[in-house]
Design a protein that fits this description.
By secondary structure, the chain is mainly α. Helix content is 68%, strand content 0%. The structure holds heme C.
Length: 115
């Protein structure tokens, strides 16, 4: 009966591994939840920034509600179309009025029609 005293230790080891597995699943769940929340906030912020940037850089030509003034109506155009217009500056529109993240924020704002 030399082996018997080992059995309690084996049980503890197995229980320990089980607890570690459970903790690691819980641990994986939490950061994912936080990330999702951050993304939500990030998007809301982007839209606010987009509104400000629109007012500063686009409103004078495209109008308060993107209905078009001296320039075409742009409300609801896809973000891709808006970004390429910003980069290319079609016709008499100046190119690169906003760049990088700013351009994306404005594009999202325009795509959502200013909401
Ligand atoms: C100086 C005036 C002016 C400003 C400022 C301006 N635009 Fe324009 N935009 C124009 C004109 C004019 C056109 C039409 C060009 C053409 O096709 O002849 C145009 C075209 C566009 C188009 C394509 C519309 C279509 O249906 O072809 C988009 C999208 C656009 N602008 C977005 C923006 C955004 C976003 C901003 C701010 C970052 C901006 N514009 C700032 C004058 C302006």
């Amino acid at each position: 009966m030399k082996g018997q005293p080992l059995i309690p230790f084996l049980l503890i080891a197995v229980a320990g591994i089980a607890i570690m597995l459970i903790l690691s699943f819980v641990g994986l769940g939490d950061p994912a939840g936080e990330e999702a929340e951050e993304n939500g906030n990030g998007e809301e912020e982007a839209v606010d920034v987009g509104a400000e940037l629109y007012e500063e850089n686009c409103l004078s030509c495209h109008g308060e509600n993107m209905e078009g003034d001296s320039a075409p109506e742009i409300a609801g155009q896809s973000a891709d179309e808006v970004t390429s217009a910003i980069e290319e500056g079609p016709g008499s529109m100046p190119e690169d009025l906003v760049t990088g993240e700013d351009a994306e924020a404005v594009a999202d704002y325009v795509e959502e029609g200013g909401e």
